[in-house]
Design brief:
Strand order of the largest sheet: 2-1-9-8-7
Number of strands: 9
Structural class: alpha+beta
Shape: globular
Distance between the termini: 7 Å
Number of helices: 10
Helix content: 25-40%
Length: 329
């Protein structure tokens, strides 16, 4: 099963407006036309196309069948969820990738904390004292979900400790305090732009960013996977910054029932989850399989069953399972 790695985002726009990847829908469909049946192209809801077979028609046919199976599983998961699922996965050892609704905008929610922490780590590469800086925490800073920061009204926390709280338990107050340190949501977006991502944007702070409002605080599964790949495994951060980001994501405690639950037992994962106010549920991860190189996966979803968090988590776990098996099979 062979898939082509998506191209980097083009430089068509340097502004704050959401921009499309250089792999446009026309490009996706053109690539798909050479590799999968026209009926699948018309109904696959944005599934990324497999590349040419590596050897012989049998290999190509197997790839088509596997992609069709994965798409069918995702459609069934969407039916159960009563919503939509977007996913993009990259196998970094082979360049293989899979995408479904991966060019569709979704609300970032708390997966934005990966970008906030990455922005801080980028600044820390220029200011070695930043991570050790002490930050006071006032009562008025505390949001409803502040499991760590609420315990430090007296003594405060360091910037590094705020990064840990934001990524491992998704402390909302920690994320806001970090944004203050790096210049706010606009500074986060500027850093994301500097990595080559012209799609992802952060506009508001917690908790407002979890409430959908047009194109504010959105990304696409393809854009986020490509950016996470650069930050966690590529040259988007210094070696020290990259190691810290990955290490903290591995320690995350919020995603046990999502991407992690869909992978073979014992698989090493670093992830960050997020959820919105109207049925949005997301998880982004770097996965280290027993064999081969890391796999970067981003799963975003929306559900009309806005209060059924169990169904939302199950849909993400099922998506991870289907895509992981498809891309590694």
């Amino acid at each position: 099963m062979s898939f082509r790695l998506p191209q980097e985002h083009s430089a068509r726009s340097a502004g704050r407006k959401t921009a499309s990847s250089s792999m446009t829908r026309r490009t996706i469909l053109a690539g798909a036309a050479a590799a999968i049946p026209a009926t699948l192209i018309a109904t696959a809801a944005g599934a990324s196309a497999p590349g040419p077979a590596q050897s012989g028609g049998g290999t190509q046919a197997t790839g088509r069948a596997r992609q069709s199976d994965v798409v069918s599983e995702l459609r069934e998961l969407e039916r159960q969820l009563d919503g939509e699922i977007g996913v993009h996965a990259i196998d970094t050892s082979t360049g293989a990738c899979f995408g479904y609704r991966d060019q569709q905008p979704f609300l970032l929610c708390s997966v934005s904390k990966v970008l906030v922490v990455a922005t801080v780590l980028n600044l820390a590469s220029q200011d070695p004292k930043l991570l050790g800086r002490h930050v006071d925490i006032a009562q008025e800073d505390l949001l409803a979900y502040a499991p760590v920061t609420s315990q430090h009204l007296v003594d405060g926390m360091t910037v590094a400790e705020l990064c840990v709280a934001a990524l491992t338990v998704s402390d909302n107050t920690a994320s806001n305090l970090l944004m203050e340190q790096c210049g706010g949501p606009e500074a986060v977006t500027d850093f994301v732009r500097s990595t080559g991502d012209l799609t992802t944007r952060l506009d508001r702070i917690e908790p407002d960013l979890n409430d959908a409002s047009g194109g504010l605080d959105t990304t696409t599964p393809a854009a986020f996977s490509e950016t996470l790949n650069r930050l966690a495994l590529g040259g988007g951060l210094s070696v020290s910054g990259r190691d810290k980001l990955v290490g903290w994501m591995k320690e995350s405690t919020t995603g046990a029932e999502q991407i992690r639950a869909g992978l073979p037992e014992g698989t090493l994962v670093g992830d960050k989850t997020g959820s919105g106010t109207h049925g949005e549920s997301n998880d982004v991860a770097v996965i280290w399989p027993e064999q081969g190189g890391p796999i970067v996966m981003s799963v975003f979803s929306t559900s009309r069953r806005t209060d059924d968090t169990d169904a939302q988590k199950a849909a993400i776990a099922g998506t991870a399972r289907a895509v992981f098996e498809g891309i590694t099979g």
